[in-house]
Design a protein that fits this description.
The complex is a heterodimer of chains A (485) and B (349).
Chain A: H1 4-47, E1 63-69, H2 76-83, E2 91-98, H3 104-112, E3 114-116, E4 130-136, E5 142-147, H4 152-162, E6 167-171, E7 176-177, H5 181-185, H6 187-191, E8 195-204, E9 209-211, E10 214-217, H7 224-244, E11 257-261, H8 262-267, H9 278-293, E12 298-309, H10 315-335, H11 346-361, H12 363-379, H13 385-412, H14 420-432, H15 437-454
Parallel strand pairs in A: 1-2, 1-6, 2-5, 8-12
Antiparallel strand pairs in A: 3-4, 4-5, 6-11, 7-12, 8-11, 9-10
Helix pairs in contact in A: 1-7, 1-13, 7-13, 7-14, 9-10, 10-11, 10-15, 12-15, 13-14
Chain B: H1 4-59, H2 70-86, H3 90-101, H4 104-111, H5 117-130, H6 136-142, H7 148-161, H8 163-176, H9 182-191, H10 194-207, H11 213-222, H12 229-232, H13 242-250, H14 258-263, H15 270-283, H16 289-295, H17 301-313, H18 319-328, H19 332-348
Classes of the chains: A alpha/beta (485), B mainly alpha (349).
Chain lengths: 485, 349
């Protein structure tokens, strides 16, 4: 009895900690939800400018579309073909073949009649050796850089060196863009000259019908993993990104689709090659550089769904992806730790950074340890059945509540799933993803956290590209996408 | 065992969460039902009004107008705007006549005080298109609004209603409101009456302090101000701020500016050198070959690139001459950039 007392105090203290943590976490998410509502309201008001049909005709800023490709033989030609059909007045497509070991380069040469081009390549960012530059004889706005393998960040840096235009758009080779993607994502640059980065909202293409490289019909996948990821993406983009936008504290712009001011990126040294989360790291670094230097800037996000990506449909690929994202998040925060609570770091350093650190980076630790301790406490009889059940209801209920609120934001804004059956399936997914799926993600992220602390390295893993969309069928999963929330 | 207080708090949280989930799901379903009902209503209204608009545009007359409920007016206004903005000439004038018959201007004036921003934007656009002078004061007030979109569109509407009255005020605000996107500003000015805009813009450029000029100078090109040498000459003095020099070089199209532009190719700031090289491509003569060839060895890629492109635009200079320059140049940078420009020219053919 005497020996039990300290243990009970520990249990009580832990319960108090978890309750406080949950309160802060969900209070934060609720605040982000409200801010998202505000941002969406402003966005839709701005969209009214579309009453001016020629609003930006002839004034759009030219864009260089950078497409890093590594062993993309199966899909690269059709990806590039659809990118060449975007509705935008002036843009170029630069594919960077990052030392592929398959026939990526040969398939590009054949599909687009490429010829070697004697370009005076300006090496402003240091990269692996550029072996050659090709230009399409059919499409004057298509160039291909062939370089030694150096990873995605290195490929993007080579693309930045070759880019002609003041804005560049980093796009994953397997991304499916809307025809008007570029004119949507460029809007923040036209509206505010301080804009450095504008991110696009990514949606999941699994279950959609794709024709000629564009989404022809929006649908939901039958695979439950992909369906749960749709709910995750709603949360991540509709209040994860949108909530931080009015505070100018968006710390993640997806590597799958983001528009950058080239000189600003070169000014901070380009993409960092020694991380698996090069997209997030660059954004956090831009915040750090501009905040600490006291320079005015904006990093913003376009809520409209303008880019589609395939989500993993197998546990193996999903696990590899989530562990990589978690590591990327940790590396990005660690590399830019000076931003945290710096006197000049503003909302990015005083709100977003601590939020990501406490709830995204360390969240899996608290979640997994919380589940374990409550389970053990219950098994040892230290926690009653009623307390254990209440804990589960609160933990699972909060997860459902956040997902349902993201679905409500979707209904208030874009409603891209118009069928009643689709709505019911999404509602079911908001509940079911909390039984097993979210816990599995938490465990994988927890393992990634432990490995990062232990100093183990993490590669890109193998991403299976199906190439099925060339056959114009719904796409199963593989690719890369941004971290949730 | 957890304390009773903690357990009670958790229990209450659980109940509140479950209640909120049910409430939000209810909201989602009700919202879906409401939006579907509204979409059907809009569809019915469009079906009723589209033939009226079409006949009015094509024939200048229309079938009897259906009675409009207050909630339907905003939808008809939206429809009217879409038609109006996609048409030109006589069709627009017929649409204005139709708007008069359904008292759209009075409705738009009422909408100016709406709390819904989208409705206010529609109202501002409509009042501008209708040239509604009675809304002048309201638009003037909205032109001062903090919301950049509302204020800019109100300024645009005032330009449409009476450009002579409003242009000076609008130009002053263009220089002050850095939150007004220049793309939209350019569009609104390009559509305004040039007889009012051009002299006012010349005057504004002449009188504005240097820090305001980078926003004004690009507009000279937008509204096709010709013979601007007298305006630009003092702005192309080497001691002007960098932003002013670059903005002035971008719009330098008067041959009288050539000697001044030539002097700027040695400027210490590379953006000035690059723009000077570019301007030489527009204004230069064969005598400028030497200057541009020297710039092919500049330490900055963009200066070399602009110089090479401009060389090709000079009178009497073609790919053959460029090949010769490349063959005789001892500088690797010059050879590389000329090689690229030649390949680009070949690809463009």
């Amino acid at each position: 009895m005497i020996s039990d007392q300290p243990l009970e105090h520990w249990v009580l203290a832990l319960q108090g900690f978890f309750l406080l943590y949950f309160l802060l976490l969900n209070g934060g998410y609720i605040a982000l939800n409200l801010l998202s509502l505000l941002t969406l309201r402003q966005y839709f008001a701005r969209r009214s400018l579309e009453f001016l049909p020629q609003a930006h005709k002839g004034f759009d800023l030219p864009i260089s579309l950078l497409v890093p490709a590594y062993n993309e033989e199966a899909t690269i030609a059709s990806s590039v073909r659809s990118m060449l059909q975007l509705a935008y007045p002036e843009y170029e497509v630069i594919v960077i073949n990052d030392g592929s070991r398959d026939d990526t380069l040969a398939s590009l040469i054949e599909a687009f009649a490429l010829q070697p081009f004697p370009e005076a390549y300006w090496r402003r960012l240091v990269t692996q050796e550029v072996r050659g530059i090709y230009r399409s004889t059919r499409h004057p706005n298509l160039r291909v850089i062939d370089k030694a393998n150096g990873g995605k960040a290195d490929a993007l840096n080579a693309g930045i060196n070759a880019a002609r235009y003041p804005l560049f758009c980093a796009v994953d080779a397997d991304s499916v863009l809307q025809r008007d993607s570029l004119s949507r994502v460029v809007q923040p640059f036209l509206e505010d000259p301080r804009t450095l980065v504008s991110g696009g909202t990514i949606r999941i293409a699994n279950g959609c019908r794709i024709r000629h490289g564009f989404i022809d019909e929006i649908g939901l996948p039958h695979n439950p993993l992909a369906l749960f990821q749709i709910v995750e993406y709603l949360r991540a983009f509709l209040f994860g990104r949108m909530g931080w936008t009015p505070l100018n504290a968006v710390l993640i712009i997806s590597g799958a689709f983001g528009l950058f001011r080239k000189e600003a990126v070169i000014g901070v040294g380009g993409y960092r090659t020694a991380t698996v989360g090069e997209d997030m790291e660059l954004i956090v670094r831009l915040h750090r550089h501009y905040r600490l230097a006291g320079k005015p800037y904006r990093i913003t996000h376009v809520p409209e769904p303008i880019c589609w990506t395939e989500a993993p449909e197998t546990l193996r690929v999903l696990k590899s992806q989530r562990m990589r994202w978690q590591r990327g998040l940790l590396e990005s925060l660690a590399a830019n730790a000076r931003l945290l609570f710096h006197p000049r770091s503003g909302s990015a350093g005083w709100f977003a950074f601590p939020f990501f650190l406490a709830f995204e980076a360390l969240g899996p630790l608290v979640e997994v340890v919380g589940y374990l301790l409550f389970g053990i406490g219950f098994a040892l009889g230290k926690i009653s059945l009623e307390a254990f059940a209440t804990f589960l209801v609160v933990a699972v209920g909060l997860g459902v509540l956040l997902s349902v609120s993201a679905l409500l934001l979707e209904e208030l804004s874009f409603r891209i799933y118009p069928q009643p059956g689709q709505l019911l399936r999404l509602l079911a997914a908001t509940v079911l993803e909390n039984f097993g799926y979210r816990q599995a993600i938490a465990v994988w992220r927890f393992v990634a956290l432990l490995r990062w602390i232990g100093g183990a390295s993490q590669g890109w893993g193998t991403m299976t590209r199906s190439g099925n969309w060339q056959a114009e069928t719904p796409r199963p999963g593989g690719g890369s996408a941004p971290p949730a929330t | 065992m957890p304390s009773d207080g903690l357990l009670q708090a958790a229990r209450l949280s659980g109940i509140a969460i479950l209640f909120l989930i049910v409430l939000l799901i209810g909201c989602i379903i009700l919202l879906r039902v409401w939006l579907n009902t509204r979409a059907r209503r809009e569809e019915r209204l469009a079906t009723r009004w589209l033939p009226i608009f079409t006949q009015a545009i094509e024939e200048g007359r229309h079938p009897p107008l259906p009675r409009l409920g207050p909630s339907e007016l905003a939808l008809v206004l939206g429809l009217w705007l879409r038609f109006y903005q996609s048409l030109r000439g006589q069709a627009r004038s017929r649409l204005r006549d139709l708007a008069g018959e359904i008292h759209l201007a009075a409705f738009a004036r009422r909408l100016l005080t709406s709390r819904n921003t989208q409705e206010r934007i529609m109202a501002i656009l409509a009042l501008g298109h209708l040239g509604e002078e009675t809304a002048w004061q309201d638009l003037e007030r909205l032109g001062q609004d903090d919301n950049p979109m509302l204020s800019l569109l109100a300024a645009g509407a005032m330009l449409q209603i009476n450009a002579v009255w409003s242009i000076e005020d609008v130009l002053a605000r263009i220089t002050q409101r850095s939150d007004w996107p220049m793309t939209t500003v350019s569009l609104l000015l390009a559509e305004a009456d040039p007889a009012a805009v051009v002299p006012a813009l010349r005057n504004a450029v002449r009188l504005s302090p240097p820090k305001r000029l980078p926003r004004l100078l690009p507009l000279l090109k937008v509204v096709n101000v010709t013979g601007s040498a007298d305006l630009l000459l003092p702005l192309l003095a080497a001691d002007q701020p960098l932003e002013v020099l670059v903005a002035a070089l971008k719009v330098a199209e008067d041959p009288l500016l050539l000697p001044t532009v030539r002097r700027l190719v040695d400027h210490p700031e590379w953006p000035v050198r690059a723009q000077a090289a570019r301007a030489l491509g527009r204004l230069g003569e064969t005598a400028d070959v030497t200057t541009l060839r020297a710039l092919l060895s500049d330490r900055v890629w963009w200066v070399r690139y602009r110089a090479a492109r401009s060389l090709l635009k000079l009178p009497g200079i073609g790919p053959a001459q460029l090949s010769e320059f490349a063959a005789t140049s001892s500088d690797r940078f010059a050879r590389d950039i000329l090689g690229q420009i030649l390949a680009e020219a070949e690809a463009a053919r």
